[in-house]
Amino acid sequence: MLGASLATLALALAAVGASGVRAADWANASQAPVGLAPDPATTREAVVQVYAARTWGWRGTFGVHSWIAAKRAGAAAFTVYEVVGWRLRWSDSAVVVSARAADARWFGSAPELLADTRGAGVEGLIDRIEAAVVAYPHAAEYRVWPGPNSNTFTAWVLRRVPELQADLPPTAIGKDYLGDRIFASAPSGSGVQLSLAGLLGILASDVEGLEVNILGLSFGVNPFDFSLKLPLIGRIGPQRRVGAGSAPYATQSQ
Questions:
Q1: With 0-12 CB in 10 A as exposed, 13-18 as middle and 19+ as buried, what is 72?
Q2: Fewer CB in 10 Å around end: N or C, the chain?
Q3: Per-residue pLDDT of the chain (254 residues; tens, 9 = 90+)
Q4: Cβ(170)–Cβ(229) under 8 Å?
């Protein structure tokens, strides 16, 4: 009953939010960078960053699209790793590896920086990111809810690179989808997680804190940074830094 009530509330709130979405042409929506990523021309060290931004249209009321951006030492551009569902209309894989601005808006929505790791040892992390991208088991399938989707992909990669300590927001629906598995490490790669098809589960981690997943909606509290996590709203809490030389989280996150 609790899960059904929460789902009903979420649908009602989403309907309200969707009513305010303008029928703008998504093809003309801004994809300009927002200034959170370092300029490869002046930053010679290796860098890995993780981002999330509200998705396009009514789905943005519910959740975010996430991606990982990496730049090797001396590289002239970032490489972005993400899953884009509509690619399956003409391709056998939804995984996209492209050279684009790491901090580009996602069809008008400004991204939030979730992790920023630089310097010594990062080249090895990029090697492991690339290996995880190739091994992603759901490249040929995509479901907005409960997964596998773009957040499932990002969580898959992050579990294999726990050094990034990326805390995906509660609005990253699909991050808890484990396919045919029930147990795994939390999406950050730290702690443990139990999840039934991404619809019901619990996780405990020294990065994410404690989260409960009900019908794909995440509720949680993180005692390590005194934050509250809520579906639709996102993370609420004090500012915190996401890495050396990086920007802090906003008080209200994605």
A1: middle
A2: N
A3: 444 445 544 454 444 344 344 435 666 778 889 999 999 999 999 999 999 999 987 778 889 999 999 999 999 999 999 999 999 999 999 999 999 999 999 999 999 999 999 988 999 999 999 999 999 999 999 999 999 999 999 999 999 999 999 999 999 999 999 999 999 999 999 999 999 999 999 999 999 999 999 999 999 999 998 999 999 999 999 876 676 544 343 334 46
A4: yes
Number of domains in the chain: 1
Hey, which bits of the chain come out as E strands?
47-54, 64-71, 79-83, 95-98, 112-118, 183-184, 192-196, 200-205, 209-214, 217-222, 227-230, 234-236
- Contacts of residue 180, Cβ cutoff 8 Å, sequence gap at least 6: none
Q: How far, in Å, CA of 38 to CA of 142, rounded? A: 31
Enclosing domain of residue 204: 34-236
Confirm whether 60 is domain-assigned: yes
Q: CA–CA separation, 218 vs 211, rounded Å?
A: 6
Global pTM reads 0.87
User: How many Cβ atoms are within 10 Å of 240's Cβ, its own excluded?
Assistant: 15
| Residue 29 DSSP label | S
Query: What is the greatest pairwise CA distance in the chain?
Result: 55
Contact yes or no for 161/129 (Cβ under 8 A): yes
* Residue 242 located in a structural domain: no
Residue 226: inside a domain, yes or no? yes
Give the residue carrying structure tokens 């390590």: 224
| Side chain identity at residue 206, one-letter code | D
Contact 33, 69 (CB under 8 A): no
